[in-house]
Design goal:
heterodimer; A: about 300 residues; two-stranded antiparallel sheet; 13 helices; about 75% helix; globular; B: about 450 residues; alpha/beta; D-Maltodextrin-Binding Protein, domain 2; eight-stranded mixed sheet
């Protein structure tokens, strides 16, 4: 019967409708806006259609390219450091210690603090005279560090703050992955006399890989979009040394009042993130296929 | 006896009712105005005085008070609607360029021409000219200034100029003379760290972006510079521009530690905490000096006009109020606007801690008794320069570039001439794209 075949679609309709309205419509709007020369004092209908001009103009804009460079540098360092420390901590703490639950809660606290507050806390800690870092350095006889007033240190400072806040995210996901690993494989390795390092390299990490890849991807996407902490700590300065892309987008929209250019910039960011996602997806497909091939080969022999 | 009292009361009531017949507010009593104000010390003072307006006129006022950047964002959306929610808005000087250009603010002429609305005792000559030219008028010289072709779109309300604050105790201790010129100010700024180890000379903002740009412009006008000449040619990289950037660099180098990243709040806090001997920025800051909760320098601060370079020229800025073109109750909104900026209300708001926009308030004995610095401020206002920065739609972009480039000068020792040449080149491109070369 026809009616029965339609029933599933009927049930899906509300979800599809919400998806269309809440997700696709704004994205379509943004894509449309990126082709306009649109000032916020105009309604969208009054804006002039300029085709790809915003996109080509951005490619030649030195500030945009600098901002893109800062974003890539920031994302690379932040995600590498966080993966390293987060996974390392998880491997260290994957055992039954007394008070582990409390410890774990404390570990993930930074993640739960609102980004604006994190920015403020770190800004005060980095304060040139009354901040805890320079005070401590001075107390042990080391000269003050220009945490936020030097382009190298400013980027380093926001990387440190971000690592502090988001390492727990990787830690907690890695720990969950570790604890759900098949005990049999680990036991077999132990019986075969594998050392701790060998267990980590040959058993734990490869088995955790799917989770780690997803975690890394999530963090990468987040790192590309970070805004509040940087906004509060440096507002992009000194110069443009910490002006990450999302800050540039927000300034283009509100300070320069160029909504079209801001939309085009967001689309570049979106394309970049989509490319990353697709790459990760392809990678996991390829590695799955390889694993399947190996398994098949093993079964055949 | 009681009867007599009642009669007298009734007679007085009748007399009042008689005068109430001539009450210009009567027609509007019971209406509710929705106004949009920023969270700002001046408007906090306004909130204390505002209930009187409702009491006197019967017009109710609902205030939507927002942080000023949020306010601008919200207004941008509100003003594009067919019918807006706001009857009266406070706007930053900068929005004048956008709102007037997009026909979003009412021209005030038709209200001032309406005998039922305009109060003959308003005395517009008493309003500070520099502020009116800067915030209220558009369409005159250069398009954004006053002049024969200009007309009025708003009235200054919560406006500010720049002023020099100095530590009287430190100056007395070392026998220093309060600087009247830029050379004197820069010299003293760099003497202070030697005389008082650990103390910076002058608090200035310098953080990348708007703050650095603002600090630079503060010195540019008195040192004889401008961003553009009268034909929109960029001249920020001329001798005066370089001198202004050098002044800024000297001030930051001789300032407190970490001054390179100070915003307005940090620069103010450094002065309030006693970390610097001088402060050169907006008058809005003066209100907190003698508040023991915020300040460690209560009673130790003296005020002087913004020092002179080759000319006098202090900043003009802050807020004005105007009526959106899509407002619902425009006439009543005008009445509120006129009331708020009248001599009486201006004085009361000043007494509550606001920034007056009238000469008479600056000279008022009662106001001066409570805030002794007000007379100095009134004097300084005679030199307020309404054209110290261009109020054009593309300024946001130029401002950001100027501010980030200057930040590189301050933190990375970028050569000043080279830096300003770069700004000039990029600014010229922005201006060309925006059509300022059409008539050349």
């Amino acid at each position: 019967m026809n009616g029965r075949r339609l029933t599933p679609y009927l049930f899906m309709a509300p979800a599809a409708f919400i998806l269309g309205v809440a997700l696709l419509y704004p994205i379509a709007y943004m894509i449309y806006a990126s082709f306009l020369d649109w000032n916020p004092s105009q309604r969208i209908g009054q804006a002039e259609f300029v085709g790809l001009r915003n996109y080509t103009w951005l490619l030649g804009d030195a500030s945009f390219r600098e901002s893109l460079g800062v974003t890539l540098k920031f994302a690379f360092f932040v995600v590498s450091l966080e993966m390293l420390i987060g996974v390392g901590l998880a491997l260290l703490l994957d055992r039954s210690i007394r008070g582990m639950t409390a410890l774990r809660t404390i570990f993930i606290l930074p993640m739960m603090i609102a980004p604006i507050v994190v920015g403020l806390i770190w800004r005060y800690m980095y304060h040139p005279t009354v901040g805890i870092f320079n005070k401590t350095l001075n107390a042990i006889g080391v000269e003050s560090v220009p945490w936020l007033s030097d382009s190298f240190w400013a980027l380093t400072s926001i990387i440190i703050a971000d690592v502090w806040q988001w390492t727990p995210f990787i830690f907690i996901l890695s720990l969950a992955a570790l604890q759900s690993l098949p005990r049999s494989a680990l036991e077999a390795a132990r019986i075969d006399g594998a050392t701790g390092w060998q267990q980590i390299w040959h058993i734990k990490l490869p088995l955790m890989m799917p989770v780690l890849i997803v975690t890394c991807l999530l963090r990468l996407i987040d790192a590309f979009k970070v805004l509040e902490v940087v906004l509060v700590m440096t507002n992009g300065g000194p110069g443009l040394s910490t002006e990450i892309l999302s800050l540039r987008i927000s300034r283009t929209a509100s300070e320069f009042r160029e909504l079209g250019v801001a939309a085009a910039m967001s689309n570049y960011l979106l394309l970049m993130l989509m490319l990353l996602t697709v790459l990760m997806f392809v990678y996991s497909r390829v590695s799955e296929a390889r694993a399947a091939r190996i398994r098949q080969a093993a079964e055949e022999s | 006896m009681n009867f007599m009292k009642t009669m007298a009361g009734a007679a007085a009531g009748l007399a009042l009712a008689g005068s109430a017949l001539a009450n210009p507010y009567e027609e509007y009593a019971g209406q509710t105005l929705v106004v949009n104000f920023p969270a700002h010390p001046h408007y906090d003072a306004v909130m204390k005085v505002l209930p009187q307006f409702t009491e006197e006129t019967g017009i109710k006022v609902e205030v939507d008070q927002l942080q000023y950047l949020k306010m601008r964002e919200k207004q941008t959306l509100e003003l594009t609607k067919n019918r807006g929610d706001y009857d009266l808005i406070a706007y930053v000087v900068f929005s004048k360029a956008d709102y007037v250009y997009a026909s979003q603010l009412e021209n005030l002429a038709r209200f001032f021409m309406n005998p039922k609305l305009a109060n003959p005792a308003y005395d517009p000559d008493d309003l500070i000219e520099g502020y009116v030219a800067n915030i209220g008028v558009a369409g005159g010289d250069k398009g954004y200034m006053d002049g024969p072709t200009g007309s009025l779109y708003g009235i200054p309300f919560g406006s500010e100029t720049s002023i020099l604050g100095y530590r009287q105790d430190i100056f007395d201790k070392h026998g220093l003379k309060v600087p009247e010129t830029y050379d004197e100010m820069l010299e003293i700024a760099c003497q202070i760290p030697e005389l008082e180890p650990g103390m910076g000379g002058l608090s200035s903002r310098a953080a990348s972006g708007h703050h650095a740009s603002h600090a630079f412009l503060l010195h540019l006008a008195p040192l004889g510079g401008r961003i553009f000449d009268d034909e929109w040619n960029v001249r920020v990289n001329d001798e005066a521009g370089v001198a202004a950037a050098e002044a800024l660099k000297t001030i930051v180098d001789c300032g407190p530690e970490g001054a390179q990243t100070f915003g307005f709040a940090e620069a103010g806090a450094a002065f309030l905490q006693g970390d610097t001997a001088m402060f050169l920025d907006s008058t809005v800051f003066a209100g907190s000096i003698n508040d023991p909760a915020k300040s460690k320098v209560v009673g130790k601060v003296g005020w002087a006009p913004h020092p002179m370079g080759v000319r006098r020229g202090s900043q003009t800025g802050g807020f004005g109020i105007g009526i959106p073109a899509n407002a619902e109750n425009k006439d009543a909104a005008f009445l509120l606007m006129q009331w708020l900026t009248s001599k009486e209300a201006d004085k009361q708001i000043a007494l509550a801690g606001g920034n007056p926009s009238r000469y008479s308030t600056h000279a008022d004995a009662e106001v001066n008794e409570k805030f002794p610095h007000m007379a100095t401020f009134g004097e300084a206002l005679k030199y307020a320069d309404p054209d110290w920065r261009p109020i054009i739609p593309v300024w946001g972009k130029i401002n950001a570039d100027l501010g980030t480039t200057l930040s590189k000068v301050l933190t990375e020792d970028l050569d000043i001439q080279e830096a300003l040449d770069g700004v000039a080149e990029r600014t010229a491109a922005v201006m060309d794209e925006a059509g300022y070369n059409t008539w050349k």
